[in-house]
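Figure 6 in text form: structure in, sequence out.
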């Protein structure tokens, strides 16, 4: 009984350490710096011919 308890506690400690390392890695690599940009970028229509950048592309081709 005690052996299983020690095993489970040590497994819990390893998982907590892994989660902490993952969270600190995500913060250091900038995963939480721009929370709204990707969500808004998916709504933008890049193929719209009224966007000036796309007009210049069409004239060059």
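Output sequence:
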């Amino acid at each position: 009984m005690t052996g299983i308890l020690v095993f489970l506690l040590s497994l819990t400690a390893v998982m907590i350490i892994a989660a902490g390392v993952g969270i600190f890695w995500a913060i250091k690599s900038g995963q939480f710096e721009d929370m709204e940009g990707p969500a808004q970028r998916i709504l933008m229509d890049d193929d719209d011919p009224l966007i000036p950048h796309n007009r210049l592309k069409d004239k060059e081709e």
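Caption detail: The CA atoms of residues 28 and 36 lie 18 Å apart.
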